[in-house]
Amino acid sequence: AHLDRTAAVDGAVHAFLHVNTDEALATAADVDARRAAGEELHALAGVPIAVKDIVVTQGQVTTAGSKILQGWVPPYDATVVTRLRAAGMPILGKTNLDEFAMGSSTEHSAYGNTHNPWDLDRIPGGSGGGSAAAVAAYEAPLAIGTDTGGSIRQPAAVTGTVGVKPTYGSVSRYGLIALASSLDQAGPVSRTVLDSALLHEVIGGHDPLDSTSLPGQARGYADAARDGDLAGVRVGIVRELGGEGYQEGVRARFEEAVALLEQAGAEVVEVSCPSFDYALAAYYLILPAECSSNLAKFDGMRFGLRVEPADGPATAERVMAATRGAGFGDEVKRRVILGTHALSAGYFDAYYGSAQKVRTLIQRDFAAAFDQADVLVSPTTPTTAFRLGEKLDDPLAMYLNDVATIPANLAGIPGMSLPAGLSDDGLPVGFQILAPAREDARLYRVGGALE
Ligand code: GLN
Hints:
Blueprint: H1 2-13, E1 16-19, H2 21-36, E2 49-52, H3 79-86, E3 91-95, H4 129-136, E4 142-146, H5 153-159, E5 162-165, E6 186-190, H6 193-203, H7 221-227, E7 234-238, H8 248-263, E8 267-271, H9 279-294, H10 316-327, H11 330-343, H12 349-372, E9 375-379, H13 395-399, H14 406-411, E10 415-422, E11 428-434, H15 440-450
The structure holds glutamine.
The site of glutamine has 13 residues, from loops.
Family: Belongs to the amidase family. GatA subfamily.
Active site: 52, 127, 151
GO cellular component, one term: glutamyl-tRNA(Gln) amidotransferase complex
């Protein structure tokens, strides 16, 4: 049914870069046969899923939305994918994204825009716009995204879906093509909080193949989502997220969601995180610094594209320059240049060093706020989905979409966006919940109570 739906609507939505019809049907048939034979299978066995095309899949093309990886077939599976396969989940295909997950609109993909199913002239968010659009358009019931500064939560917000960024280190990064290694985290996209909880339990838990993987297993999320009891739960409204610059309809839906939490028994308090004013600036130094290093491996020798210089000798350096010049898009080049500059001798302390200090201040703000509240809440994004092309020529306006999502990545804490109804423009609004590190279950308890 999902493959049929995809065939019918994906020409207009363009959520997928590759669809794996044969493999998905074979997995589904295998699960059916095992169930018929009486085998006890996972609750999600046979439930199909779409995977963001920055997560490697053995034998299936993985591009990260970049020309530099056009046609590249990974020789191994990411741990997340290994776990989906082990649970018997058919992988429908790979979804569109901003190149190497840099962006907030999926307009920076080398393979064309994804359209928001609510209004095809609007962006589906980014970088994981393909995963969110696939779920919103009923092409897939579930998807995997990655969130470095908001790329699961922001697309979820603007497409009316649920998206979860787990605690840093709680879902393996093995086999995620790295954007910024200290910030990246894979997580679920779904239509309900309970669906995300079930998927999170499948993909989470310790992985010896990831050196930053936390010990322990991913348990208790589905139970928390089903619980619904908020008696005594302290909910903190973050003063710095949600005031000026936020669309009126976004603020109205946010306040209604807070009132619902209060009705369900939660105690609402206000908290202040003054360092959040500097989060965006710090992020746009730390992320380019890390990505300039991570993307150095795309050199025309090891992976994908190789371009010979137009004239003159094909030295290693000249092949590298020709390949990267042709293979990377403008946003990737902008960040590699920024990051290389921020890390260079003479500028390192002023830029990268200062940004790391701000990161510590943000972590302290969160620690103080979580003394007063069990979870923090805010709108996920300042506005609903904007029009395709509207912010493409204005990188700063594009970056501002992530003001409310970025602090969680800088602190390594978990966050969820869930639908809070429609704004006055008829477009979905996202409600963000944040919890202390390793307390992901709180997201599901509070989110589940709202559902
Ligand atoms: N939009 C943010 C950026 O461009 C977030 C990206 C992400 O989470 N992958 O960096």
